[in-house]
Design goal:
Elements lengths: L2 E5 L2 E4 L4 E8 L7 E7 L6 E6 L5 E3 L7 E6 L4 E6 L8 E9 L4 E4 L3 E6 L1
Parallel strand pairs: 2-11
Antiparallel strand pairs: 1-3, 3-8, 4-5, 4-9, 5-6, 7-8, 9-10, 9-11
């Protein structure tokens, strides 16, 4: 059974920081591309950041320079460090695991991030 369990969300003031973590089980973690996506009220789900199995990263323009994605294959976790948070970063953040070729695609249950102005 595949599980992606997010943690670390919460309420923070604008300019503050949070760190999200996602613990994976039931998959061969090291071969999966991992990512963070977010869904805000009234908006479509958007990519925040991804990290491939080889460690290459990609960020949405809106978070470049503020967010950092990282992974620890030994601990089977992927993290998202978020600095200089803005009210527009408010959303439910979802962890994603994707294995190319096979197109295996899994999602966590989401964690709420709220940034107050």
């Amino acid at each position: 059974q595949v599980q992606l369990v997010e943690s670390g969300g919460g309420l923070v003031q604008a300019g503050g920081s949070l760190r999200l973590s996602c613990a994976a089980s039931g998959i061969r973690f090291e071969v999966y591309n991992m990512g963070w996506y977010r869904l805000a009220p009234g908006k479509e789900r958007e990519l925040v950041a991804t990290i491939t199995s080889s460690g290459s990263t990609n960020y949405a323009d809106s978070v470049k320079g503020r967010f950092t994605i990282s992974r620890d294959n030994a601990k089977r976790t992927v993290s998202l460090g978020m600095n200089s948070l803005k009210p527009e970063d408010t959303a439910v953040y979802y962890c994603n695991a994707y294995r190319p070729v096979y197109r295996y695609n899994y999602w966590g249950q989401g964690t709420q991030v709220t940034v107050s102005s």
